[in-house]
Amino acid sequence: MSEELEPGIDHLAARLIGGEHSGGPVENTVDLGRIERAVYEILLAIGENPDRDGLQKTPARVARAYAEMFAGLRIDAAQVLTTTFEADHDEFVLVRDIEVYSSCEHHLLPFHGVAHVGYIPGAHGRITGLSKLARLVEVYARRPQVQERLTSQIADTLAEVLDPRGVIVVVDCEHLCMSMRGIRKPGSRTVTSAVRGHFERSAAARNEAMSLILRR
Ligand SMILES: Nc1nc2c(ncn2[C@@H]2O[C@H](COP(=O)(O)OP(=O)(O)OP(=O)(O)O)[C@@H](O)[C@H]2O)c(=O)[nH]1
Ligand SMILES: [Zn+2]
């Protein structure tokens, strides 16, 4: 079993989130060996034989998958937004339907769906690259999460770093912990929203943004 994170994994995580260029260096490492030992124990505990042919590499595979799924824990989200541009544009900017794969922190099962991220640039007219909004979603999604916190973390980081007039974030996901186990309601969606600045104060601005978010 490997004890240290393979160099390739950190690079993979870095590329996924933005890497040295926009996500900052990945400073800490995941203890792959520890995950492997734990997964080996889980396989024993469910009554499987972890040493049978098909399962021999499973603990190592799961460890690498976890390193990727939780790579966001080791990345400073604010670093993702360091590329900003001056622009005359002071109207609403929205990136819709950003695919989200996250893990619920209660069951470590996936929840997946879409995020819609919009903001109105601030008085200084600074905007960020559109892809950076999706990278911001990635950084927070690749952590053990609850959907409410994911939504507000995206909104708060945008509000802090860009100092925009307003921010609106809507996340719409299906939680596999509600679909494949427990209450077993496949297809149910959870929708969470977070508004900051102008969108908190103005119902008209909120409604206009929501109509663009919901437009099909
Ligand atoms: N608010 C919120 N709840 C979540 C999220 N993801 C999972 N949950 C819920 O977390 C709760 C955990 O409840 P518990 O009673 O401690 O755990 P449980 O016995 O496995 O619950 P059931 O899922 O109802 O079987 C469940 O109601 C989940 O649906 C999330 O992102 N936000
Ligand atoms: Zn869950």
Your description of this structure?
The longest helix has 16 residues, at 147-162. The protein folds into 2 domains: 7-74, GTP Cyclohydrolase I, Chain A, domain 1, CATH 1.10.286; 77-214, GTP cyclohydrolase I, C-terminal domain/NADPH-dependent 7-cyano-7-deazaguanine reductase, N-terminal domain (GTP Cyclohydrolase I, domain 2). The radius of gyration is 20 Å and the shape is elongated. Residues 1-9 and 18-27 have low confidence and may be disordered. The chain has helices spanning 7-17, 19-22, 32-45, 58-69, 130-141, 147-162, 176-179, 198-201, 203-214, and strands at residues 84-86, 93-104, 110-120, 126-128, 144-145, 166-175, 190-197. It is α+β, with helices and mostly antiparallel strands. Helix content is 41%, strand content 23%.
Question: Topology of this structure?
Answer:
Elements: H1 7-17, H2 19-22, H3 32-45, H4 58-69, E1 84-86, E2 93-104, E3 110-120, E4 126-128, H5 130-141, E5 144-145, H6 147-162, E6 166-175, H7 176-179, E7 190-197, H8 198-201, H9 203-214
Parallel strand pairs: 2-5
Antiparallel strand pairs: 1-4, 2-3, 3-6, 6-7
